[in-house]
Amino acid sequence: MIPGRMFWEKVMPRKLPLHVRRERDRHGKVRLYFRIGHGPRTLLPGLPGSQEFEAAYADALAGNVRRKSDIPGRERGTIAWGVASYLRSAEFQDLRPTTKTGYISRLDKIRVPHGHRSIKGMTRAGIERAILAPYLDRPGQRLAILKMLRVLIRHWIAIGELKADPSLGIRRPRGNEIRAWTETEIETFERRWPIGSKERLAFALMLHTGQRRSDVHRMTWADLRDGAIRVTQQKTTTRLLIPVHADLAAVLDAAPREHVTILNTAHGKPFTVSGFGNFMRDAIAGAGLPLECQPHGLRKAAGRRLAEAGCSANEIMAILGHKSLAEAERYTREADQGRMARAAMVRLSDRKANTHSRTTPNGFGKNGEK
Q: How far is CA 78 from CA 116, 121, 170, 255, in A?
């Protein structure tokens, strides 16, 4: 065995950060390189998670792997420099790997076209005109860029590059919000995919636990114990113990227990989160449901059902794992509005019925009809 090989294989994670490759040199030693596509390679020191690795990785992500003459805005005070500073910060380093990957993608959309611009020269009008205007026809992307820019601005204020937030006053664009499934749509899906199908199993797990697809695709049979399912949410790290609904129990009883994970691909492998999302969208389309029926809408349907059953905001939080009452209270407000509206209509109907007297003014208790 090559000296040191066992050590590297044990301590080095199988899944490396974005654009990082594992290669062996001519001496058989494992090394990590940063490389985008067929671009130049940059050797990264240490192991992922170490201070020296993270610093070098941040430099590489910021574009420092190229020749200095090719990098616009490398000097202090530019947006490219400011992005590199944020990538080295404890705030970024403390993020989960999946969150880092998403951030890097959005940071590149700010750094690449605007890296040469001055941080101190940023204004509200400039942000709207130069950075956000290209996304006017894509409100979701525009919102993501604005949120990422505000993360950078908070960091730049913290390190003294800015004194105030130049993005103040910029309104968040309204995207197409994912809505909750209706009861009719839920019944349509269940008619198309009966108990015993993988589609129904995935659907039931999402609807009756109210969890995100990033959590549902990772659920294992070992998570099911004593009539409950244990979940550690990937997004929030919140730990939940969710009692198994009777409808979900019936679906689980009919499912084969051939693998560790409850849901698996046709090849018997666990789903990736994107693969699971594609699987659910195919199942939804196969049921003849509209595009507005998104997988995440099942989580919202779970929240709606809980609220309509009279659950409090705290009870809804205990199932869905929301971090703030404000998120859970949205469901209770909508349910309360529906109940109050129905009660109001009943009272209005009763009032109208009571305006038609069935007695004569002169004969109390006597029928005035001939």
A: 6, 9, 22, 56
Q: Is 47 helix (H, G, I), strand (E, B) or coil?
A: coil
Structure token pair of residue 164 = 């105030």
Read off the pLDDT of residues 209-227 as tens digits, 9 standing for 90 and up: 999 999 999 999 999 999 9
Distance, in Å, from the CA atom of 195 to the CA atom of 138, rounded to the nearest integer, reads 39
- Strand pairing report for 359-360 and 363-367: antiparallel
Tokens 């990264």 — which residue? 44
User: Are 76 and 217 found together in one domain?
Assistant: no
User: Does the global pTM surpass 0.70?
Assistant: no
Amino acid in the structure at residue 227: G
Tell me, yes or no, whether 221 and 89 share the same domain.
Answer: no
Query: How far apart, in whole angstroms, are the C-alpha atoms of residue 89 and residue 100?
Result: 12
- CATH value at residue 314: 1.10.443.10
Nearest to 299 by CA among 330, 255, 259, 333: 330
Q: Is the pLDDT of residue 141 over 90?
A: no
